[in-house]
Amino acid sequence: MAGSAPIRDRSCDSIENSCLAAAQHRVILRCRKIGARMKSDMGLDRITRNPEVMGGKPCVRGMRVTVGAIVGLVASGHSNSEILAAYPYLEEEDIRQALAYAAWRVEEIEVPLPAA
Fold this sequence. Notes:
Blueprint: H1 13-41, E1 47-48, E2 59-60, H2 67-75, H3 80-86, H4 92-107
Antiparallel strand pairs: 1-2
Helix pairs in contact: 2-4
């Protein structure tokens, strides 16, 4: 028939979806491994993630100060000296690493997995 769509065997759909999901899962795992290596290569040893601290958000040296909080303060126009005065347990290097980590994460690509 002219103009009709080709007949597709639906029995292959679940196999194709499973293969696609597995391939995407491998890509994400590989990216995470590369990301962890890049994080250590970049000297971001002060940025930690723990599911029991701030819900697993990236924090500075395991403390309850998130990378997002520091980025927000800098974006609001606060100087490093103002941030250090407000958080006396932080160091200048903590702020530098928080900003470097945030910049690195913005460049990372996450591939969403399709719903099963």
